[in-house]
Amino acid sequence: MHLLAKTFVKTGHLRIREDSIRSNKTLFHDRAVTNKSVIPLRATCFSAIGTPLPHIEQAACIYLDYNGTTPIFPEVAEAMRPFLVQHGNPSSSHKFGRECNMAVQKARQQVASLINCHPHEVYFTSCGTESDNWAIVGTVMAARRRSNAPSFMAHVVTSQVEHPAVLECLKHLQQQGLATYTAIPVDHTGTVDPLEVEAAIISSTVLVTIMHSNNEVGTIQPISEVAAVVKGLRGDSNGDLNRQQQGTGSSILFHTDAAQSLGKVQVDVRALDVDMATIVGHKFGAPKGVAALYIRDGVEISSFFLGGGQEGGRRAGTENVLLLAGFGRAAELAVQEREALTEHMQRLRDDLQDQLCRALPQEAYLVNGPSSPSQRLPNTLSISIKGLDSPRLLAVLADELAATAGAACHVPGYTHISSVLAAMDVPVEYAAGTLRLSVGRHTTQEEVDAAVGLILREIAAQGLPLRLPSLTA
Ligand SMILES: Cc1ncc(COP(=O)(O)O)c(C=O)c1O
């Protein structure tokens, strides 16, 4: 019997026939590829939203960690396949180079369409961490260069719930004596108040960096409101950044880390009015190790990578054509499937939440993040269960359910909860029992049902009360 089906039977939560899972699977069949410049494909996929991936079926481990990373979507793998063998340096003018260069430019166009900017405003990088670091260090170093005072101490405003790619970078700059920063607090839903941003800005502030959405709890930040604050303070209603940046050195740039948002909700950099945005491929179906930084026309920041003239001379290094082909295709899919995908994820996430909440006594849990759907990522459920040892639960289920906890470490007498939950003031007895469950394009209803059964079984095994104990019988 299919292992997933066995799980259902074992948990007794939902009776499901093996063939109902099989009938919903991704279909593969052989097809020859006519284009002579690419290798023949052994298989072509007919994958769609809500179809399980073939290798997931084999693994029989339910994947609810889409915020950690997504699988490479079958269509994306297919777009990359030719470049496993097709070689050529995109900077070379011969046929091999030109073909690779065309693939890079196609990917740039596809990513630009996803975020609504010009292709030349998209700069490819190796990961989200690089994009975040570049936006921050590049802005600080450029401001220091522009200010004629060698002792100029740049200041950055951020929030307490940012990813370590932002917070650790800022800590480092502060330790090196290159910048100071203010991390503003958030409310109990994890939301930043634009007025707090305004209050934190001082005369030496050169950058505000606030994430578009949070990776742990899914809170979507009021980015256009923060942009309005920043723009109001720098007084450039005509958006003439060059003039501002070259003037006193006191202009303020606004960066948003949109790593978790792309492929889940719309991110339109023009409508949001941001100067820079981080985009990360492996959060929406592309492989790991490829990302981008959107830099608005006219914004000047220093470069990290010096060498050849790639990426408009701002980020040297031969482009990774293979990964970029996948990144571009994933961006294109995200545009094509935008509404259907959001609807699919939200339906499953809401169902996951409803099933867990219905089974737990009301005072036993907290759902983290805003309750309004427009203020929370449609795929993310962060639930904190009082008295639960969530790392232990996940360790017991490690071969059956892939998810993450909100507590970094939990030993008797010492619980270190995540900085995001701490900033949101989630009481420690709840925070230590946090599960982050994130669904995605290939999650199925059957997986959600099975995951609920497994989680409830382990909650009961830890001696915690359930409203419907028969679920785990
Ligand atoms: C919000 C956010 N920013 C940045 C990153 C870093 O991206 P990468 O792992 O590609 O460096 C992540 C990855 O989890 C993230 O969730």
TrEMBL record:
<keyword id="KW-0175">Coiled coil</keyword>
<dbReference type="GO" id="GO:0051536">
    <property type="term" value="F:iron-sulfur cluster binding"/>
</dbReference>
<dbReference type="InterPro" id="IPR015421">
    <property type="entry name" value="PyrdxlP-dep_Trfase_major"/>
</dbReference>
<dbReference type="GO" id="GO:0046872">
    <property type="term" value="F:metal ion binding"/>
</dbReference>
<protein>
    <recommendedName>
        <fullName>Aminotransferase class V domain-containing protein</fullName>
    </recommendedName>
</protein>
<dbReference type="InterPro" id="IPR016454">
    <property type="entry name" value="Cysteine_dSase"/>
</dbReference>
<comment type="similarity">
    <text>Belongs to the class-V pyridoxal-phosphate-dependent aminotransferase family. NifS/IscS subfamily.</text>
</comment>
<dbReference type="InterPro" id="IPR000192">
    <property type="entry name" value="Aminotrans_V_dom"/>
</dbReference>
<keyword id="KW-0408">Iron</keyword>
<keyword id="KW-0479">Metal-binding</keyword>
<keyword id="KW-0663">Pyridoxal phosphate</keyword>
<feature type="coiled-coil region">
    <location>
        <begin position="331"/>
        <end position="358"/>
    </location>
</feature>
<dbReference type="InterPro" id="IPR015422">
    <property type="entry name" value="PyrdxlP-dep_Trfase_small"/>
</dbReference>
<keyword id="KW-0808">Transferase</keyword>
<dbReference type="InterPro" id="IPR015424">
    <property type="entry name" value="PyrdxlP-dep_Trfase"/>
</dbReference>
<keyword id="KW-0411">Iron-sulfur</keyword>
<feature type="domain" description="Aminotransferase class V">
    <location>
        <begin position="62"/>
        <end position="450"/>
    </location>
</feature>
<dbReference type="GO" id="GO:0016740">
    <property type="term" value="F:transferase activity"/>
</dbReference>
<dbReference type="Pfam" id="PF00266">
    <property type="entry name" value="Aminotran_5"/>
</dbReference>
